[in-house]
Design brief:
The complex is a heterodimer of chains A (110) and B (113). By secondary structure, chain A is mainly β. Chain A has no helices and 11 strands. In chain A, strands 2, 4, 5, 9, 10 and 11 form a 6-stranded mixed beta sheet that branches. Chain A has a 5-stranded antiparallel beta sheet with strand order 1-3-8-7-6, with no helix packed on it. Chain A is globular. In chain B, strand 7 and strand 8 form a beta hairpin. Chain B is globular. In chain B, the strands form 2 sheets. In chain B, strands 2, 4, 5, 6, 9, 10 and 11 form a 7-stranded mixed beta sheet that branches. Chain B has a 4-stranded antiparallel beta sheet with strand order 1-3-8-7, with no helix packed on it. The chains are: A mainly beta (110), B mainly beta (113). Chains A and B meet through strand 5 and strand 9 of A and strand 5 and strand 10 of B.
Chain lengths: 110, 113
């Protein structure tokens, strides 16, 4: 079982819709969770971090964490074509390293 | 803003050459990391360092070594480059006493011919 799992996609949504990206993790003791956006040919860019159960909102982005279900998600409201990218979920392990999922490719169609 | 820089965006080397990839961060971060990223394989950790002169092997250290003589600089060394080391190399750093948010450099696209 992979430690951090994401659907690879591609996930296609129309412009203006809500994009929902999901991630599950295997280590129940994990405490820190991150979402990165990566455009083709570029390095990952940190867009959200979340540490407590519940929702955390930042502009059009909302991260949701459910530690009991070992599930973290990212919602992108009013999706724009510029949001088209690969989104990486990362979980900090007990040794301090980040464990990354394989990423979900998002395509926002005009 | 955290800034992580890498010495080259694109690099072409020949098989057997010794290759140095340099990474510098300007935020006094203790922890630094080297990854490679390949299509279908995701991000894979090569080496990391928690402090000056300290290094730990990641998941795929074979064929690589690292050097951390100063806190702000973490170097990745390919002792004898091979074609299977053609990849995107990404450096990252974290301040361990804070939020543990990890920031990446722009990456080096290395091609070994």
């Amino acid at each position: 079982q992979k430690e951090v799992e994401q659907n690879s996609g591609p996930l296609s949504v129309p412009e203006g819709a809500i994009a929902s990206l999901n991630c599950t993790y295997s280590d129940r003791g994990s405490q820190s969770f991150f979402w990165y956006r990566q455009y083709s040919g570029k390095s990952p860019e940190l867009i959200m971090s979340i540490y407590s159960n519940g929702d955390k909102e930042d502009g059009r982005f909302t991260a949701q964490l459910n530690k009991a279900s070992q599930y973290v998600s990212l919602l992108i409201r009013d999706s724009q074509p510029s949001d088209s990218a690969t989104y990486l979920c990362a979980v900090r392990d007990r040794g301090g390293k980040l464990i990354f999922g394989q990423g979900t490719e998002l395509s926002v169609k005009p | 803003d955290v800034k992580v820089t890498q010495s080259s965006r694109y690099l072409v080397k020949r098989t057997g050459e010794k290759v140095f990839l340099e990474c510098v961060q300007d935020m006094d971060h203790e922890n630094m990391f080297w990854y490679r990223q390949d299509p279908g394989l995701g991000l894979r950790l090569i080496y990391f360092s928690y402090d000056v002169k300290m290094k730990e092997k990641g998941d795929i250290p074979e064929g690589y070594s690292v050097s951390r003589e100063k806190k702000e600089r973490f170097s990745l060394i390919l002792e004898s480059a091979s074609t299977n080391q053609t990849s995107m190399y990404l450096c990252a750093s974290i301040f361990s006493g804070g939020s543990y948010e990890q920031y990446f450099g722009p990456g080096t696209r290395l091609t070994v011919t």
